[in-house]
Amino acid sequence: MNLIDSLVSPLTYSFFDRGLIVATISGALLGLIGVYITLRGMSYIGHGLSHAVFGGFAAAQLFAAQFYVIGAGLWGVASALAINSVSRRQRIGADAAIGVITTGSFALGVALLSKFGARGPSFDSALFGSILGISTFQIWGLIAVGILTVLMIVFRYRALMFTTFDPDVADASGVNVSRTDAMLMIVLSLTILATLTVIGVTLVAAMLVIPAVVARMITSSFSKMLIWSAGIGSLCGFVGMYLSYYAGVPSGTMIVLTGSAVFALALVVRSVRTAINRRRNKAAALSQAGQTSPAVSGKKMPVAF
Fold first, then answer.
1. How many beta carbons lie within 10 A of that of residue 183, not counting itself?
2. CA distances to 4, 20, 97, 109, 171 from 52, in Å
3. Predicted pLDDT of residue 1
4. Exposed e or buried b for every residue in 79-99, given b needs 16+ CB within 10 A?
5. Three-class SS of residue 67?
6. Which residues contact 205 (CB under 8 A, 6 or more apart)?
7. What range does the domain containing 61 cover?
8. How many domains are there within the chain?
9. Which pTM does this prediction carry?
10. What does the pLDDT look like over 54-67, one tens digit per residue?
């Protein structure tokens, strides 16, 4: 089977078509939001919120509610707002607020499922992601979250950038920092919820961090970092879906492994470029020293008696 056949063959299955669309869009969305999260030093929040959603999953299982819309949706937004409020108003850092609220939510979910629920296919899909059973409603929901995210970045670009790099200066400049942070947290929670279908609770945090970190290695421009991160995330989603199909493993696992491979490659390339630049700088310095040394040696030095 050649490359073209390998790319076309899975597309004959409708479940793969939908999974590929969702994975590609999910990667781009997580890449965009991940830039803000990473630069704020809040990489742990993606891990925390994705686990907090598990409590919503358990509650939805109990009340026979739709997982992504009612249970996890309300739970995720409430957890995000609680983290933002506690970290700003109390004398604890954001990392501590994330740790307390999200682990408590996750523990509650485990307790509810252990007592009243049962492990099944939906449980495994929520944890590790699955391309099976993706509905048209979920695709449109993901697209809606994507549009909301892009609109937020376009219309609140300066406010988000100021609060990301220096919230004190942003506050002094008239930016409503608390409202901007709350808006970012809500969009983050909705993005996590919308992407859990393919990537899963346990792995979605990795795709928030990896594309943004790789983009930061490539460029120091904030606007270009957003573009690079979205592109890398969508590429990881696209390639990871094909690898998942042929390897027969959960989609979230292969998407994250693809991202990890991209990160390792970027790290090697950056290390090689740094070594080459150092060697060039050293050679240039030696060359400059060699050009000036004859003039210095040709001068007559005064003799001291």
1. 16
2. 41, 26, 12, 8, 30
3. 60
4. bbebbbebbeeeeeebeebbb
5. helix
6. 43, 46, 47, 50
7. 3-291
8. 1
9. 0.81
10. 777 767 666 655 55
